[in-house]
Amino acid sequence: MRIAVYATRTSEKWECYLSLDMRVDLQWWYGVKRSTDEKAGSGVLVLLSTQVPLGWAVSIQERFRSLQDMDQWGKSDWQKYLYQNLSSFLLHEPEGSRSQWSVLFKEIQMLDGSYANYSIVNRNEDEDWGLLMQQAELLIQCMAGRALLAGEVEALLAEVSGDTGDWRSAAQLGILLGRLRLEAGLAQPAPRSAPGWLRRRAMAPRCRRCGSEARSRTACA
């Protein structure tokens, strides 16, 4: 799975978010959030990329730290920041396939409220948002206490409501509300104090659900 990664300036600091559907995020930050929260910020949003592999995107978010200098950063500064965060992943990719990931560093866009208003101008905002909120509530209830893959989410919603709908949009709203989490399927364990082959085994990625060691992985896992 590939997702979008962006940074936005709130009234207090820069924050990093992951997105399954950027349309939801734009409406959240430039519509709902701005009209209801005085801490919504300046409206500056930096779209780093729309197609970062999930595992890489989660790592970017976990490592993200707000810097005062970010207020003055331009496109080239954000490109450099993204490259620094992804370079270790690229080095582990087969040499022949590294060039395909260069597109990640060419997508950076610095957005403001005018762009967001243009992107959602033709939508019935109140009606769409109310329906999306209902879908998000259903998804949140269905996923309570569960850790599911994308296909499992679709199957669960089909069983409950008979229609999966645009579940990614609903899931993204749940994430913005702080009631759902988006995580990579594989986790890198913390280093352990062990010699030789034991240390190497401890550092192997493991499944977040069952804890089993991954024999191999793709960039999107």
Radius of gyration: 19 Å
Number of strands: 6
In spatial order, strands of the major sheet run 2-1-3-4
- Output the helix-strand order: EEHEHHEHHHHEHE
Contiguous low-pLDDT stretches (5 residues minimum) are 190-194, 197-202
What sort of overall outline do the alpha carbons produce when their principal axes are compared? globular
Structural class: alpha+beta
Helix content: 40-55%
| Strand fraction | 5-15%
Number of domains: 2
Average pLDDT rating: 78
Describe this protein with a few key phrases:
221 residues; alpha+beta; two-stranded antiparallel sheet; 8 helices; 6 strands
List the helices and strands and how they pair.
Layout: E1 2-9, E2 14-19, H1 22-36, E3 45-53, H2 54-63, H3 75-91, E4 109-111, H4 113-120, H5 125-143, H6 150-161, H7 167-176, E5 186-187, H8 196-202, E6 206-207
Antiparallel strand pairs: 1-2, 1-3, 3-4, 5-6
Describe the structure.
The protein is 44% helix and 14% strand. It has helices spanning 22-36, 54-63, 75-91, 113-120, 125-143, 150-161, 167-176, 196-202; strands at residues 2-9, 14-19, 45-53, 109-111, 186-187, 206-207. The chain has 221 residues and is α+β, with helices and mostly antiparallel strands.
Could you give a short description of this structure?
The chain has 8 helices and 6 strands. With 221 residues, the chain is an alpha+beta fold.
